[in-house]
Write a structure and sequence with these properties.
single chain; alpha+beta; Umud Fragment, subunit A; 7-stranded antiparallel sheet; 4-stranded antiparallel sheet; 35% helix
Length: 237
């Protein structure tokens, strides 16, 4: 009798446990499948973020035109796309995006250069790494963004004549793409101005009152963010 009971129990027990084990296996497979899908999504998202970071922090940049200084080519509020690489290959008539420390617009060049050198020397390796990654040090002095056209480069001599003409290396420039005279800003830059290595003389297309090298002098290569490659008109967005 006991043997018969045991024989009767064993099949019943197997019938009850087998479906439970099968459901657990199915759940485990589904869990693994979901985890693989989640891992794939996270990997793709990480790769996308890496591509976006490299693209917009080290290859190209996007900024909004801060003023009407480049009118009518670029109007205030237009979005400007600029190329960060090959900054050493800047030529006359290129339009560049650059930053000037706001304090240096009022202080002398030498005072700014000394302050900048001291600030760079005091940065730790991790702060320099963060700078390279694109995270600006909050202790850095504020900077003002400009977009202007290059009219002269290293070694060139620039003059602004009394007749509101741009003169480069003794030759009056015929600028068919500029619709305004180039007046002299009294009391800011001494002419003739000979540009040193890595220096550029830039002018706004809107020459009557535009902020450019007639006001703050030459633009240094380390101040250049990139060369404009295209724009998106604000009224077409």
């Amino acid at each position: 009798m006991d043997d018969n009971k045991e024989k009767m129990k064993i099949p019943g027990t197997q019938e009850k446990t087998a479906p439970v084990d099968e459901k657990a296996a199915i759940r485990q497979k589904l869990h693994k499948r979901h985890m693989r899908a989640l891992r794939d999504i996270l990997i793709r998202l990480g790769m996308l973020l890496l591509v976006v970071y490299i693209l917009f922090f080290h290859l190209v940049g996007v900024t909004k035109m801060p003023s009407g200084d480049m009118y009518p080519r670029i109007d205030a509020g237009d979005f400007v796309l600029y190329y960060r690489l090959e900054k050493n290959d800047i030529h006359a008539q290129d339009i560049i995006v650059f930053e000037k420390p706001t304090a240096s617009l009022e202080a002398s060049y030498q005072e700014h250069k000394e302050a900048e050198t001291q600030a760079a020397a005091g940065k730790t390796w991790w702060r320099k790494s963060l700078d390279w990654l694109g995270f600006r040090d909050p202790a850095d002095p504020p900077k003002t963004l400009f977009v202007c056209r290059v009219v002269a480069g290293p070694g060139d001599t620039v003059e602004i004549g009394n007749s509101s003409h741009l003169i480069v290396n003794g030759n009056p420039q015929v600028e068919t793409n500029i619709f305004y005279p180039t007046p002299l800003y009294e009391g800011f830059v001494r002419y003739p101005l000979t540009l040193g290595d890595g220096e550029y003389f830039v002018l706004a297309d809107y020459r009557n009152g535009g902020a450019d090298s007639r006001f703050f002098g030459a633009v240094r290569l380390d101040e250049v963010l990139g060369t404009v490659i295209t724009i998106a008109r604000r009224n077409n967005l």
